[in-house]
Amino acid sequence: MAGYFSNHSGSRFLANAHSSHGSQTTTATTPASSVLQKNPSPVPPRSRLPSSKFSSSVSSSGDEKSQSRERESHPLKNTWVFWFRQQRAPGNKITNYEEGIKKISSAGSVESFWGLWTHLHPPSALLPTTDYLLFHAGIRRPVWEDPLNITGGKWIVRLKKGVADRLWEDLVLAVIGEQFDDYGRTGSGNGAGGNGGEEWPEICGCTISVRQNEDIVSLWNRHDGDAKVKERIRETLRRILNLPPTTVIEYKSNNDSMQDKSSFRTTNPDRTPLAPS
């Protein structure tokens, strides 16, 4: 398991050196529609089949609003929205970050989630500098500056190439399955969406960033200043992804990201081993 992580015990750069040797830079761009499989194989090209906790008997994908209410017999506690972002290819003109983000679809039920998930290409099939983003439907745009994101931050795990598909699926299922839900729900704050006293989960969403030499998963939370909540989220993340105690996990506030214009640069790694059970 230790070999999954690109920065396990400080070995990130060694891992990158191996994966980048002899590689060539990809210049092709990926349109948003290409992340959807038009004719998904009857046997999903995954490292495992979908969890038995969820139904996967859905015939098609599409936006949540276009799906029949009668078919949504197993509603999720919250509605979640999938987004996609293709960053600029080398040599191309830099594109505004938000302009590059495209909404794929939303899911408010078990059925609609699996209908979408089985049509998405796994991270291993995406070109480098591509992101998948899954965020709560109350978040207007999956960016640092959104009113529900701006006071929070993210836990970050860097992975070696070739192992992200299963860990990304585990994280997504944990988020939509509310495995972080016991960390409290708070009012909208900052007048987000004009919803007054509506409550929002502590977890905003999660992302995976496919890069040339590594893949990066991150879990976003709403409050950067609550150390106890952040620690509990970190330990739950370790458990869900089955991370070794020595795995380096980094945390970066969205305020810091806005200051240095980067999600992952100059983060503060957390090397605290898991507490004994």
UniProtKB/TrEMBL annotation:
Keywords: Initiation factor, Protein biosynthesis, RNA-binding. Gene3D superfamilies: RNA Cap, Translation Initiation Factor Eif4e (3.30.760.10). GO terms for cellular component: eukaryotic translation initiation factor 4F complex. This is Eukaryotic translation initiation factor 4E. Belongs to the eukaryotic initiation factor 4E family. InterPro entries: TIF_eIF4e-like, TIF_eIF_4E. GO terms for molecular function: RNA 7-methylguanosine cap binding; translation initiation factor activity.
